Amino acid sequence: MYGNIKEQLAETLTEIREAGLYKTERQLESAQSSHVGVAGSGVLNFCANNYLGLANHPDLVKAAKVALDEWGFGMASVRFICGTQTQHVELEDKLSAMLGTEATILFPSCFDANGAIFEVLLDAQDAVISDELNHASIIDGVRLSKAQRYRYKNRDLADLEEQLKASADARRRLIVTDGVFSMDGYLAPLPEICDLAERYDAMVMVDDSHATGFVGATGAGTPEHFGVTDRIDILSGTLGKALGGASGGYISAHQEIVDLLRQRARPYLFSNAVAPAVVAGSIAALDVVAQADDLRDTLHSNAQLFRSLMSDAGFTLLPGDHPIIPVMFADEHEAQAMAELLLERGIYVIAFSYPVVPLGKARIRVQISAAHSEDDIRTAAQAFIDARAAL
Ligand SMILES: *Cc1c(COP(=O)(O)O)cnc(C)c1O
Fold first, then answer.
1. Over 90: is that where the pLDDT of 354 sits?
2. Residue 256 pLDDT more than 90?
3. Which ligand 1 atom is nearest residue 49's CA?
4. Which pTM value belongs to this model?
5. Distance between CA 188 and CA 325 in Å, rounded?
6. Of the residues 88, 241, 361, 372, which is catalytic?
7. Is 131 in the pocket of ligand 1 (CB under 6 A)?
8. Over 90: is that where the pLDDT of 332 sits?
9. Atom of ligand 1 lying closest to residue 111 CA
10. What's the CA-to-centroid distance between 238 and ligand 1, angstroms?
């Protein structure tokens, strides 16, 4: 019986609204792209994780259409019963080849991959040492395990070393970090993290969701960028961002780790296999990524151009090279008002404020894509200047 739970929940919803934290969803009236339809008009999209512009790429769409005819719509099974097509294994092998790892296992999402790994690998004798700004799925995955928990300050090597010393009694230790922190666009200092891991005999796991496909010379992500591919024990990542943006995630790691995940990972054993069209589209995405030096160059030059136009106009940006470009504002109302003025000017961006980012660090997170033209980038920067004048 629902009873007075209705009123209790309504009260909670009111609290969320009054705190200014209520999220509404804008509805796209088009496919995901650099140009999308919103509320009856065309706008430039600067808030998608569509870094290489593959979300609506003709090769991926074609591969997915062919797969519908050849492989059907759904799997109606988990992988270990009758949910593994040859193309699922092909996609896993292709990911391993691209990432330079021994083996890969697909999950319904990266959220599920991170939900699976800690419980399988670590128990109460073990410790996980986690960056404080790691993705929610890592935090939840750690909670699902019985491992002892240590947290270090974001990218702070001295604090990481403290936590390694504090966890000296553990049987196994795993340091886990996002490869790129999504609110800042900052990269984790992987070489130094690997040095500490070696000194203190810990494994290293990197969640490279905001890097795979476009960071590193061949798009193999932050380990490639830093030249530490051989020193990373576990990689997690998503098919839901640069690699086509549909859905699915993976763990790519040493053979024994992947083998054990196939035996024990609960989101793998008890959730449906990735849909055939998504698998085929993702294989096509990896083929595009393997030949995508031009897309990576365009993405990089677009990001550089936006950074320089905005800096020249006097905006405060967080520094870096990543296509996540946070434009900082003094207070959250200003960031929010700017995002609304920008949408009126045809630029779709999102303002983030406390508690998603620290108090006083409100920002508009601009996300650049290779699908943007130089003109799109200049239009966006000019819209920021115009919106600021109108504020
Ligand atoms: C987006 C993201 C995820 C979740 O990926 P899904 O495949 O959408 O579940 C996990 N970790 C990080 C760091 C992410 O940015």
1. no
2. yes
3. 1
4. 0.97
5. 16
6. 241
7. no
8. no
9. 9
10. 6
Spacing, Cα 110 to ligand 1 middle (Å): 5
Query: If pLDDT is split at 50, 70 and 90, which confidence band does 85 have?
Result: very high
Q: Is 186 in the pocket of ligand 1 (CB under 6 A)?
A: no
Provide the H-helix boundaries in 72-189.
Answer: 86-99, 110-121, 136-144, 157-166
User: Distance (Å, rounded) from C-alpha 239 to C-alpha 235?
Assistant: 13
Amino acid symbol at 286: L
- Mean of the pLDDT values across residues 260-271? 98
Residues 99-132: pLDDT tens digits? 999 999 999 999 999 999 999 999 999 999 999 9
Sequence-separated (6 or more) residues with CB below 8 Å from residue 358: none
**210 is an active site residue:** yes
Is residue 88 annotated as part of the catalytic site, yes or no?
no
Question: H-type helices in the chain, by residue range?
Answer: 5-18, 58-71, 86-99, 110-121, 136-144, 157-166, 190-200, 222-226, 255-264, 266-269, 276-290, 293-312, 332-344, 374-390
pLDDT tops 90 at residue 43: yes
Nearest Cα neighbor of 246 from 210, 219, 278, 214 is: 278
Ligand 1 pocket, residue 185 CB under 6 Å: no
Q: Is the pLDDT of residue 172 over 90?
A: yes
Ligand 1 pocket test target in 105, 118, 132, 135 with most atoms within 8 Å of CB:
135
Measured over the CA atoms of residue 153, residue 157, residue 163 and residue 164, the dihedral's sign is positive
pLDDT for 62 beyond 90: yes
Output the CA torsion 37→39→44→49 (10° steps): -80
Active-site annotation holds for 241 = yes
